[in-house]
Amino acid sequence: MAVCLQVVGLMLGVASWCLASSCTSSQLWRVRIHLQVCRALMILSLMLGLTSTIVSVLGLKCTKIGRISESAKEKMALTGGLLFILSGVFSLSAVSWYASRIIHEFHDPLYGGVRFELGTGLYFGWASAGMAILGGSMLCSSCRKTTPLPSARQFSYSLSPTTGGEQIYRAAPPSQSSSKAAYV
């Protein structure tokens, strides 16, 4: 199940990267100061998406590259998922900010410029943001913490070179609340 979740998450992340790149290169944007900030956010989203794709591929359970331990692979998949989510947030904020400006100018009666409508590039951007966030969430949810919880009664073993012998520490028996002797 975890492998399938990772593969689907990676596929969604790669598809979102393709949509974000087509959204960024689209000529259906206007040139304004806030537009340049939106494009910068989209370029950051693309760079994060490419990085997260590489990290996620290396962290998938179904890929075998070198002698990477399973815990390191899970950390890489988790990092890739978080980068996909961050990429989606950057893309979503850029596209939504630009769309809000378009809608505001369209409904402003005092605006004297050309009134634009929402174009297909914005819809590609929203789709890519949603897919990146969903794919990153799938990658993150496929990684579970597998460290065992410590039991209540553990035993420890210590070899001390100064005493010249081995020391075994055993857990103390549970104390009685009605006992008059208290050990510190």
From TrEMBL:
It comes from the Eukaryota. The chain crosses the membrane at residues 40-60, 81-100, 120-140. GO terms for molecular function: structural molecule activity. The keyword Membrane applies. It is a multi-pass membrane protein. The keyword Transmembrane helix applies. One of its GO terms (cellular component) is plasma membrane. Keywords: Cell junction, Cell membrane, Membrane, Signal, Tight junction, Transmembrane, Transmembrane helix. It is found in: Cell junction, Tight junction; Cell membrane. Residues 1-20 form the signal peptide. Belongs to the claudin family. This is Claudin.
